[in-house]
């Protein structure tokens, strides 16, 4: 008889301990979940090793989700309390908040502007897709836990009103969570199917720098009957190299546009506008050269003058083609842009700048060509 009593006492105490563990598990999950939510809210892709940090966070979310599943699986009959319902509601809200913040992170990826962050951009897309999947799994496990609690609660009659209220809140939060996850995934699919123009910025930036150097050098040159052949030949060689690089970049843009759209980066627009301004300067320099050559033509050796006029015509052609290549590149990017709505004002501004500057450049080039043709005609070159 004593042994039976001892056994009953042990079972009773075990039951009390088990029930206490269930309530405690819920509270612990709320604390752990809120910590994860705070980590996610404080996360940014604009930090060193961002994708590595996101990977760690994703793993923590997966571990948390497994903890929820374990608590659900080990659950036995117990008396639900208001505190338990509060815990379920808190878990529901925190996963909803995390899903909403995942949208913000997906949009943060579109703000990456530095070429050096291109790897982060690519890896970030994968990390956010994994995050949305993990948050979705967390939401499912929390919902399963709530359902399990309803089944295992032995006082469902007494808690009926509170349980119904909790279910309504969970249903609403789940709808928001699912919607947020879908938006996040759609954003990432959009980015993964498109190429951010920051991929072009390194090459484009180098072209901008080199064209600017050429422009400054051309403005510093003062032609005379003795140096014009050498100076113009050197400048023409630089334009040939720049034209080759510009054409190669255009070919890359055209090739990429054949099988993917572009996500336009603000720095790309800035550089396209800057290039068009520099070409105006190049055209103006050529026009000034033409005027100088026309003035000193009578004092210049015929052979030198002939070579100089030929080189000038080639220069006007090279610079004109380069200017046209940049316009083609911009048009191809704009046509294939999948964020044209977000960047509409900047794109329109860049197009206006380019159109104005191209008109000025063409005017200078046409004037230069006309003067050279006149010199060739007048001196029988």
From TrEMBL:
What range does the record give for the signal peptide? 1-20
Signal as UniProt keyword: yes
Q: Which terms are listed as keywords in the entry?
A: Signal
The name under which this protein is listed is Methyl-accepting transducer domain-containing protein
Per the UniProt record, the lineage of the source organism begins with: Bacteria, Pseudomonadati, Campylobacterota, Epsilonproteobacteria, Campylobacterales
């Amino acid at each position: 008889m004593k042994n039976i009593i001892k056994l009953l006492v042990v079972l009773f105490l075990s039951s009390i301990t088990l029930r206490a563990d269930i309530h405690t598990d819920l509270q612990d999950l709320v604390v752990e979940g809120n910590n994860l939510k705070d980590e996610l809210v404080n996360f940014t892709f604009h930090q060193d090793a961002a994708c590595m940090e996101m990977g760690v966070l994703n793993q923590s979310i997966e571990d948390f989700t497994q903890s929820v599943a374990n608590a659900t699986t080990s659950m036995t009959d117990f008396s639900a309390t208001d505190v338990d319902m509060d815990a379920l509601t808190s878990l529901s809200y925190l996963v909803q908040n995390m899903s909403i913040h995942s949208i913000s992170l997906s949009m943060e990826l579109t703000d990456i502007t530095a070429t050096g962050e291109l790897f982060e951009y690519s890896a970030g897309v994968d990390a956010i897709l994994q995050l949305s999947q993990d948050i979705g799994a967390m939401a499912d496990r929390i919902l399963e836990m709530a359902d399990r609690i309803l089944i295992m609660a032995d006082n469902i009659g007494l808690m009926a009103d509170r349980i119904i209220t909790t279910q309504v809140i969970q249903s609403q939060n789940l709808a928001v969570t699912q919607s947020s996850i879908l938006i996040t995934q759609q954003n990432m699919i959009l980015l993964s199917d498109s190429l951010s123009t920051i991929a072009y910025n390194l090459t484009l930036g180098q072209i901008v720098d080199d064209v600017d150097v050429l422009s400054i050098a051309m403005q510093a040159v003062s032609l005379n009957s003795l140096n014009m052949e050498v100076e113009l030949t050197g400048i023409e060689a630089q334009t040939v190299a720049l034209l080759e690089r510009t054409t190669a970049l255009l070919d890359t843009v055209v090739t990429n546009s054949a099988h993917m759209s572009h996500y336009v980066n603000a720095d790309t627009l800035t550089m396209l506008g800057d290039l068009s301004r520099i070409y105006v300067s190049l055209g103006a320099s050529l026009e000034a050269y033409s005027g100088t050559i026309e003035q000193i033509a009578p004092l210049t050796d015929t052979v030198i003058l002939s070579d100089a006029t030929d080189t000038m015509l080639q220069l006007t052609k090279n610079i004109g083609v380069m200017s046209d290549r940049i316009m083609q590149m911009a048009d191809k990017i704009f046509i294939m842009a999948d964020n044209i709505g977000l960047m509409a004002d900047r794109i329109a501004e860049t197009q206006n700048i380019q159109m104005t500057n191209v008109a000025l450049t063409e005017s200078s080039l046409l004037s230069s060509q006309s003067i050279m043709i006149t010199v060739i005609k007048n001196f029988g070159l």
